[in-house]
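_Backbone structure tokens_
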Amino acid sequence: MNRPHWLNQSYVQTLLHRLVDKLDKADDKPLRPVKLDRKIMPALFDAEFEADKETYWSYLLQIQQWGWLAIKTDKAQPGKAQYELNPRIEIVDPALLRQITDRPQPIRSSAQQWRDAVYAKLHVDETIREQVAGQKLEIPGKSAEDIVERLNLLPNLIDEPLLLREVSARLFWGQSKVLDNRQALVATLLDLEECPFPESPIQLQVYLPATTFSGVLFVENLATFEKASRETTGRFDSLALVFASGFKGSAKRLRTESGVSVYFAAHGNLTHQDCQRFCHWLIRDAEALPVWFWGDLDYSGMQIIKSLRHSFEGLDAWQPGYQPMLDELLAGNGHEALAAKKSNQKPIDATGAQYVDTTLIPVLAATDKFLDQEF
């Protein structure tokens, strides 16, 4: 095609380049019709004489006839020119438009390729997709699409007692180190507060009372665990106390030999019989014991209870520990979620534990405040 001289004029080139700018900004996503206004073609709207406007509009109609663009306007109105009817431009042939303006498709950065793959391939809610889009994962020789499609398999592994490197090897073609230091990404993908796959076996610190224990109490915070193991009031005398650091969402691994390492406190009962009894109860489920959890009075603590109940049937919140905390909240004390950097905690409706569901969660919802265990 012999190009007419006006195609190289600045006012037409400005239009074409600004349309290509729109293409670049859309970055391969569908581009909606572009409103033809002063920003897109200043010459048309700033022309002093109507004859000039008619000329510029005729150029646009010619470009449309060539099949590069499509022009849409509102319904014709008496006394109004077409360019006065809210004109919109649809780019029909982006490749040709780039060729005419000598503006080839920009090379997408690896970050943009990751974002595109996440938005196109990842099977999660939009909110999670937005978070994952900012946590790029790269594997030499694999495309972003390949990696994202493997991440879609992650939820299938959540109920297996796997270490993080085992998860990585299963997902990523036998490569075990891909998810090293990527616990935040895993937690985001699974919509959990913490990654449920430990780097190594979960370490349980256990205090056994001098007398035979008749129940087990999981304690969330180390300071409270240490204080309870040395308390002389007697309220913990028949309980095996357990502190497990960072096991949120990982309860299933607590009851497997490869998933847990048990360490008994030196100032507690260290008789072989009682230590063995605890381990047999934990790993082999050798006897039925009542189990409780005591931690922060917040939604995260309630989530831990829900998680633990998958492995410890009948587990509930420990009422002697929670009741004084509950009284504090009902008295108007406690802290706002934002004040303790807990604003990301999501409300939980039910755990299956009676005391939690009928008492603790309703008070949390009613007061909209939390209380740390150490109060």
